[in-house]
Amino acid sequence: MKASVAGYARAQSLDHAFNLLHSALGEAVVIAGGQSLVASLNLRLSEEALLVDIRHLPELRGIGVRDGFLRLGALTRHAELASDPLVGEHVPLLAQAAPLIAHAAIRSRGTLGGSLANADPAAELPACMIALGAEILVRSAQGERRIPAHSFFEGLFTTALEESEIIIAVDVPLKTAGDQHVIQELTRRSGDYAIVGLAGVKSVNGVRLAYFGVSDKPVLAAGAMDILNSGGSIDDAVAALRGDLDPESDPHASAEYRRHLAAVLMRRVMVDLTNS
Amino acid sequence: MTQATFEQLVEVSLTVNGERVDARVPAGRHVVDFLRLDLGLTGAHAGCEHGVCGACTLQIDGEIVRGCLILAAQMDGAEIWTIEGVTDSKEIADLQDNFVERNALQCGFCTPGMIFAARDILTRHKGVPGRADIREHISGNYCRCTGYEAIVDAIETTARARNSAKEGAE
């Protein structure tokens, strides 16, 4: 169908964007790449929206190392995550994740900030940010705050972002020598959203495993991680997934099949995390 | 402070196939509809209209995109190329000839989008891409006629010929 749009405004600056959001009294939606938003406007899943276009704001762009983090501007596109040398060196998880997102013609346009704000529970990047222990920088006219990824995602397409706030950037801890990053997902067709996916990070602090596609938001497998990080066996960690994950059945897969796939992925990801 | 107003008709100035276009577009107009309905460029096809089928694939600012997932209102300053433009320039004549030669189309609905996806991997890939690479790159473009085998053949044939020509020149 055709997109249901009530009005459009191109933000000339961040302050202008805040002003637009304020003037729309909660009726406005921020658009950047639009690769999920326009699809949902076409499907009339979103209400007729006033769009605030932030795609041209230079302060939301750029990738650079800063204070022990790799800072990724909110407008960083998936195609850039896949090819940027700094991402490849410091956060290979994101370089591995990007090619799993949709297709080339969508990765050329979709943005990091957009994916996080959209908070699709089957999307790769939200789970990666939780596995990495990243922090999401958001700003409003009142100021800036940093939100840890694990408390940013609150539920189905729901985040801690206030209506007046815009994601500015993401700070991701740098990979250090000996760290390992792995992401794997199971899909029926290339480019589909994952039936189940798993982003894993191994560092001096132990293993962090974030699942996607198994709940209404990305989930840290806390019980399994505790077992793995205290020297327990992979079999015990897999058994602990029963308590960590509570997937639902939907037309794509039954809950039990998702549990099975989650265990398969944990074994595969742990092989990659510990062998390389 | 710039005024906080939302427009229902948005002024844009862009280039399409190398020609400057100034237009006022409805805020919700998809790029593919802008091209088809306002400019009469019907090469890009509107299929599923939610970013799945790939029939509306075209090039904006040097990269392939979905014409149904981008609003014309966002196109101020953009450089758009459609199948009409890249056909006239003859840059993909070999690819198009190979599509015909290998029967890589039947009804033709997916073909303009498929050609853009094929052109993208041919441009980006150094040397000859493997068939798995080609399949991955066209995985976002649905074809309900050919079964894809002939499309992969046509792209592979083009890649081999271009590679031979390049090696011959060196």
Task: Name a few traits of the molecule.
heterodimer; A: 276 residues; alpha+beta; Uridine Diphospho-n-acetylenolpyruvylglucosamine Reductase, domain 2; Uridine Diphospho-n-acetylenolpyruvylglucosamine Reductase, domain 3; Enolase-like, domain 1; 3 domains; five-stranded antiparallel sheet; four-stranded antiparallel sheet; 12 helices; globular; B: 170 residues; Ubiquitin-like (UB roll); DNA polymerase, domain 1; 2 domains; five-stranded mixed sheet; 5 strands; 16% strand; elongated
Write up this protein.
The complex is a heterodimer of chains A (276) and B (170). Helix content of chain A is 36%, strand content 26%. By secondary structure, chain A is of the alpha+beta class. Chain A has three domains: 5-53, Uridine Diphospho-n-acetylenolpyruvylglucosamine Reductase, domain 2, CATH 3.30.43.10; 59-173, Uridine Diphospho-n-acetylenolpyruvylglucosamine Reductase, domain 3; 180-275, CO dehydrogenase flavoprotein, C-terminal domain (Enolase-like, domain 1), CATH 3.30.390.50. Chain A has a five-stranded antiparallel beta sheet. In chain A, helix 10 packs antiparallel against helix 11. Helix content of chain B is 38%, strand content 16%. The radius of gyration of chain B is 17 Å and the shape is elongated. With 170 residues, chain B is an alpha+beta fold. The chains are: A alpha+beta (276), B alpha+beta (170). Chains A and B meet through strand 1, helix 1, helix 2, strand 3 and helix 6 of A and strand 4, helix 4 and helix 5 of B.
